[in-house]
Amino acid sequence: RRRRRRRRKKQEGRKRSQQKTARKRKVMKRSTRRCRKERRRRTTRSAQSSTGSEWRVPTWVWTPRTKKFPKLPLRWLKSSMKTS
Question: What is the pTM of this model?
Answer without folding.
Answer: 0.27
